[in-house]
Amino acid sequence: MAGLTRRRDWLAALRAELAATEASPWSWGTHDCVALVARLAGAMCDGELAPALPDWSSQDEADAALAGAGGLVAAVTARLGPAYEAPALARRGDVVVTEAGRGMGLGIMTDGGRVVQATEPVGWVRLPRGSVVMAWPLGWALAVGT
After folding, report:
1. How far is CA 15 from CA 19, 79, 94, 97, in A?
2. CA atoms within 13 A on the CB side of 20
3. DSSP at 46
């Protein structure tokens, strides 16, 4: 929401960060779905995406931090504002929540209408657009050259 503006080179920055994180080992708090989205958003936008959540290093700590923020959806909405009326409105670079047999997870829309999400032992996984259950615009309102 306020303070997040896409950079002119946001797409190149997104692709570069995806390449840089492709071999990152999965780890709570440093390369999980929330951390990956914060890193990708930070590459694409000026401003800070991460809401004021405490650090975590385990699933229990992550669950407690997100519960304290009202849940994953509430934490994202507090930072980005209202979600799109329909998940199908999500565009490349937008933040999404997916439900793909592993529970809810945070991701970013990428090329070809796919979602990138850190849920694998190394790197990230691409999920189909159909796994998106909620989506938020990321820096479009003030973006230049998009």
Report:
1. 6, 23, 14, 20
2. 11
3. E
What are the beta bridge partners of residue 45? 6
Opening angle at CA 91, ends 88 and 94, nearest 5? 105
Burial of 19 (0-12, 13-18, 19+ CB in 10 A): exposed
Global pTM value: 0.87
> Contact at 8 Å (CB) between 80 and 138?
yes
For 19, the token pair is 């390449």
Q: Are 110 and 14 in contact (CB under 8 A)?
A: yes
Compute, in degrees rounded to 10, the torsion defined by CA atoms 121, 33, 85, 142: -130
State how far the Cα of 17 lies from the Cα of 12, in Å rounded to an integer. 9
Residues 14 and 93 sit within 8 Å (Cβ to Cβ): yes
Q: Give how far the C-alpha of residue 25 lies from the chain's centroid of Cα atoms, to the nearest Å.
A: 17
DSSP 3-state assignment of 94? coil
pLDDT tens digits along 120-138:
777 788 888 888 999 999 9
